[in-house]
């Protein structure tokens, strides 16, 4: 495998390993051996160590004394905690867009993403669906104009990505529920209705949490 700019080598290695964790190829509690990764990717051991530290910050890997790195495990407590936190941050972003959009053109990126989500649903393309679910947040960043909020979400995004992938892999039909909720969210944002935004996003996060916990129960 060959890695190139613009991302740093460690970031690219971290992204490669994150994809394997998110897809379930690397299982919870499975060890990630630096030497094997170094040999498989033809990169330096130092870059692999840096990549693992990145993944630790993103809650995909635990680095244990004298035992090295292993894929972090998902528990009910972790899932509920993550969903609760992300829910509040989603609401902050939704409120920011509702307060600051000025013309229909400001909302156009969200309508484009909605169209892509519909296409992914029709194709049952989980990877594209999950990716565009997070692109919704990225489209909202300029309205919030909060670098701390953006950095926190980006660091938590791989962990959320992992839970979404797990839930949708178990129940692909749930993609239609997400689509319907997103449609309601766009209506709430367009109407500048903060109470409805909180209600819709609360339902969205609660449903996501239920799906993930249900998927964990049958693993």
From TrEMBL:
A molecular function GO annotation: DNA binding
PROSITE patterns referenced in this protein's UniProt entry, alphabetically: HTH_GNTR
Membrane-crossing residue ranges in chain numbering: none
Pfam families: FCD, GntR
Keyword vocabulary terms for this entry: DNA-binding, Transcription, Transcription regulation
Tree of life domain: Bacteria
Span of domain HTH gntR-type: 7-74
Keyword Cell inner membrane: no
Name the record gives this protein: GntR family transcriptional regulator
């Amino acid at each position: 495998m060959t890695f190139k700019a613009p991302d740093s080598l460690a970031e690219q290695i971290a992204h490669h390993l994150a994809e394997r964790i998110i897809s379930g190829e690397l299982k919870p509690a499975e060890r990630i051996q630096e030497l094997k990764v170094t040999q498989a990717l033809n990169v330096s051991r130092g870059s692999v160590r840096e990549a693992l530290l990145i993944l630790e910050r993103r809650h995909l890997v635990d680095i244990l004394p004298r035992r090295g790195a292993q894929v972090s495990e998902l528990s009910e407590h972790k899932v509920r905690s993550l969903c609760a936190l992300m829910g509040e941050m989603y609401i902050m972003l939704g409120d920011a867009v509702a307060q600051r959009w000025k013309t229909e053109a400001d909302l156009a990126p969200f309508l484009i993403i909605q169209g892509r989500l519909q296409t992914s649903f029709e194709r049952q393309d989980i990877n594209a669906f999950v990716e565009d679910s997070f692109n919704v947040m990225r489209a909202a960043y300029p309205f919030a104009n909060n670098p701390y909020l953006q950095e926190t979400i980006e660091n938590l995004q791989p962990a959320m990505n992992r839970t979404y992938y797990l839930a949708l892999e178990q129940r692909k039909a749930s993609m239609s529920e997400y689509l319907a909720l997103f449609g309601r969210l766009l209506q709430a944002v367009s109407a500048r209705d903060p109470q409805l935004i909180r209600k819709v996003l609360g339902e969205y996060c609660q449903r996501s949490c239920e799906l993930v916990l249900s998927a964990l129960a049958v693993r």
